[in-house]
Amino acid sequence: MxxxxxxxxxxxxxxxxxxxxxxxxxxxxxxxxxxxAYSQDGQYLATCSRDKTVWVREVGDDxxxxxxxxxSGHTQDVKCVKWHPTKDLLFSxxxxxxxxxWKYEEAVDDWLCTYTIEGHESxxxxxxxxx
Length: 131
Description:
Number of domains: 1
Number of helices: 0
Oligomer: single chain
Distance between the termini: 24 Å
CATH superfamily: YVTN repeat-like/Quinoprotein amine dehydrogenase
């Protein structure tokens, strides 16, 4: 399990019958981390922050969390990240009134914004999609 915090950390938790223990604290965002979400297969962990960025980390077999992308494209705080349930597509929502879709592009070896959904006149707090 991963949790996002106002202290700017993303904590990775080990859960057991005895309770929960933070086994790793991931640093990097300049401000509070607003949301953390694992991809459907557990290969990636995405986080977002008031620093207007979306980070994607690849989860290694030894529970190393290597940063593979620091995506910027939002102009305001990023409030939420959510993965597509069957594809490696990541969606982020923001105070800039938009939702962005991010996808890994092998040709440039980076996560790029493939499109932006506009239409709200205020902050997009969360998104829930039916695919």
